Every structure is written in structure tokens, then in C-alpha cells.
TrEMBL record:
It comes from marine sediment metagenome. One of its GO terms (molecular function) is nucleic acid binding. This is YprB ribonuclease H-like domain-containing protein. InterPro entries: RNaseH-like_sf, RNaseH_sf, YprB_RNase_H-like_dom. Residues 192-356 form the YprB ribonuclease H-like domain. It holds the Pfam family RNase_H_2. Signal peptide: none annotated.
DNA sequence: TCGTGATCCGCACCGTGTAC
DNA sequence: GTACACGGTGCGGATCACGA
């Protein structure tokens, strides 16, 4: 037994070492004191050349416009100081009107879907409803489905997070019932999240944006890295908004933002629990509007739903290059649209969430 | 009561498309 | 690179209806 433990320990130690080594290969992102270029593995061919040229023109314009301007002069914020360094913290508040289904109505709607009970499909639900079983509560006395119904009723009363998993077992994550389940939380519980990074994997995060909605306002907090050394402080700032009662609201965050942040936390060996329930607006939006739209990018949705057309948008593939230009030139110009659009993304996400609730009620 | 066929349900797989 | 949705397909098991 002891021998096995020692063996296991050695195996885990080897795996851990290899894992650290694979991440540490990204040495080019360690901050260099000289002005050497930083290899971002940026691939221009990823973009249409017209889009690329437009972005280069934008960059030139911004470099000219912000020559000699300090970050604090262009974007109001303050330095967030933590025990592990500092980063630039930008806070804003805007009026917003977010309407989502209330908890009572959400519960009522969920309980009227008998297909949440194992063994009930479309046909069985039809016949059960014909027999007078309108809700899962009605099924409590049913000889076959009673036990499972009681179990679900306990879940919906005691454990909202588990309801999400339960619905996810029988319905796609983009299903209107899943959106309806988000109404089990108060709008103050939602953490809207969007990050800007230096690449797809194992690259530093350069901007962490978090937003929270209150009665009729949205507060946005952005943690920006003036240099890559500040990533730990930015992560610390982000974590200060999260508690176990929060629910994440993201655009493709299930695949990108959350795993990315988790990977960065692991890299710095920081503790942070991000297993909160998660509603990914991308999948709901696709289900709702993909037939009307050429694609479901956030900017496309913004234009279609709210008539907002962004000026000076930096394609996400070019964000690393823009940031790299800032690091080399110490000119904050290329950062400005990145920071502004990140903030706009957070607000748009909240608005799309509200619109989806309106459309699917 | 038993056997048979129909129906329903759950699940797995595949290819395609799409987002960051 | 990765994960997910979606539509299609097919398989196996459970359940039900029906006739003998």
C-alpha cells in the first residue's frame, strides 16, 4: 500500500512537472526589460486582407492621435494595488433596463415541462397532459413517475444549480427552458464576463472585464495590464467580484473565457472557484437568430438587435498585435478601442440577455 | 397469461458549422 | 485548438396494445 502511494506520488509529480514545462514553454511572454519584439504567433492570413489593411490604418491613426498621451488622461481609472502587484482598474456605471423572467414564473414554466422526468418524451407528455397531469407537481402521485417527480421538486426548491444540470441532461444548452432557468436567480447575481487575450491558449490575458447589473444600472469593472507582469493583480481584481452565489453570463465563455481564466489561475497557482452556473449567450443567440443573420458574432447581433454599428473595431485576431505595438512604442493609442469595445461587449451582453428573455417568454 | 409487434425513449456516433 | 450545437441516423431496451 505504502509502496503504491509512493509510486502514485512519483507519477503525479512527473505529470505535474511535464504540465508545468508545457506551459512554461511560453517564455516569450515573460516580460523582457529590453525593447525586443514579443512573438505573438500572430497570423495575418487568418483575416481577409481588406480587414487587415483597415486595422493597420486604424492603428496608424491611433498612434498619431495618442502620441504622448498617458493612459490616465485617455481613460479614467486608478491603479489597483494588491499584495502581488498592481494593474489599471477602470470603473464605469451606465443606465440600463434589463428585464428577465422572475423566479416564480420561471419555476412555473419549468414545472410545466413533464419531459424533464426520466421516461417521459413527447408522446408520453401529450397523453399525461390529456389525462390531467399539467405539471410535475401533479405527477407526485403517479405510480410510475411519482418518485422522480418528487426528486425534481426537491431539487428545484433546494438546489438551483442542480436544476441547470438536470435540464442539461434532457435539453440542449441553448434551449429556451435553460434560459428560463436563469430566471431562478436575481439579476444582481449575474456576473457578466469578457476577456481580451494575447492568443487562444497559454498566453496572458491583457484585459479582464466584469459587469454586474443592479436595479437600473450596469457597473463595469475592467482590469487592464499595462505590462504582462500585472496579470496576477488583474486576476485578483476579477476574483474579488466572484462568490458562490454568482452566475456567469458570457459570450462563448463556456468554451473560451472561463477555461482560459482557469488555466491562467492554475499557471500562477492561484485559488479560484469558477464552477458557478453558467449561461452562454452565444448558444441562445444562435438558436434565436441564426436564420436571420449571416453569423452570430457579437458585433453582428449588436447591429441587428440594437442598430449599433461600431467604429474602429479591432478584429480579435489582431488584439495581440495591437497590444504588442503598445508595449513596444509605449503609445496607448492601439489600446483605446480594445478597452472601449470590451466595455461595450459587457453592456451588449446584458442587453441581448434581456432581449432573449423578452423573445422567449 | 403469454407472445408478438409497434412505439417510444435514451444514447451514441458522425459530419458540419461556428465561436473565441 | 477546442468545445459545443445541430441534424441525421441507427441501435437496443422498456413499455404498451392487442390477439390468441
Amino acid at each position: 500500500m505504502l509502496e503504491n502511494n509512493a509510486e502514485n506520488k512519483a507519477v503525479f509529480s512527473r505529470i505535474g512537472k511535464r504540465w508545468r514545462e508545457s506551459i512554461d514553454k511560453v517564455k516569450e511572454y515573460d516580460v523582457r526589460e529590453d525593447e525586443q519584439a514579443i512573438d505573438t504567433e500572430f497570423i495575418p492570413s487568418f483575416l481577409f486582407s481588406l480587414e487587415y489593411q483597415k486595422a493597420q490604418e486604424l492603428k496608424r491613426r491611433l498612434l498619431e492621435k495618442y502620441k504622448g498621451v498617458l493612459l490616465e488622461e485617455a481613460i479614467q481609472g486608478e491603479r489597483l494595488k494588491t499584495g502581488e502587484g498592481s494593474c489599471y482598474h477602470i470603473e464605469n456605471q451606465e443606465k440600463i433596463n434589463i428585464n428577465i423572467i422572475n423566479p416564480e414564473k420561471a419555476k412555473e414554466k419549468i414545472l410545466s415541462n413533464l419531459k424533464l422526468i426520466y421516461g417521459i418524451g413527447r408522446a408520453t407528455e401529450y397523453f399525461l397532459k390529456k389525462e390531467g397531469y399539467r405539471t410535475i407537481e401533479d405527477l407526485r402521485q403517479h405510480p410510475r413517475f411519482g418518485l422522480e417527480s418528487i426528486r425534481f421538486l426537491q431539487t428545484i426548491n433546494d438546489n438551483r444549480s442542480e436544476v441547470i444540470n438536470w435540464i442539461g441532461r434532457w435539453f440542449p444548452k441553448s434551449h429556451p427552458l435553460m434560459l428560463c432557468a436563469s430566471g431562478l436567480w436575481k439579476k444582481e447575481d449575474f456576473i457578466i464576463l469578457d476577456i481580451e487575450t494575447m492568443g487562444f491558449f497559454s498566453r496572458p490575458i491583457i484585459l479582464l472585464g466584469v459587469a454586474q447589473v443592479s436595479a437600473n444600472h450596469i457597473s463595469t469593472h475592467q482590469y487592464f495590464l499595462e505590462n504582462i507582469k500585472e496579470e496576477v493583480a488583474a486576476l485578483r481584481g476579477f476574483l474579488s467580484h466572484i462568490n458562490k452565489n454568482n452566475v456567469f453570463l458570457t459570450f462563448n465563455g463556456r468554451t473560451f473565457d472561463i477555461p482560459y481564466i482557469e488555466e491562467r489561475l492554475a499557471y500562477y497557482r492561484m485559488k479560484g472557484e469558477l464552477g458557478n452556473p453558467h449561461f452562454d449567450i452565444l448558444h441562445f443567440s444562435r438558436r434565436a437568430w441564426r436564420k436571420e443573420l449571416p453569423n452570430c458574432r457579437l458585433t453582428t447581433l449588436e447591429k441587428y438587435l440594437f442598430g449599433i454599428e461600431r467604429e474602429d473595431d479591432v478584429p480579435s485576431a489582431l488584439v495581440p498585435e495591437f497590444y504588442e505595438t503598445y508595449l513596444r512604442s509605449k503609445n496607448i493609442g492601439p489600446l483605446i478601442p480594445i478597452i472601449e469595445h470590451n466595455q461595450q461587449d459587457l453592456i451588449t451582453l446584458a442587453n441581448i440577455f434581456s432581449r432573449l428573455h423578452k423573445e422567449w417568454q
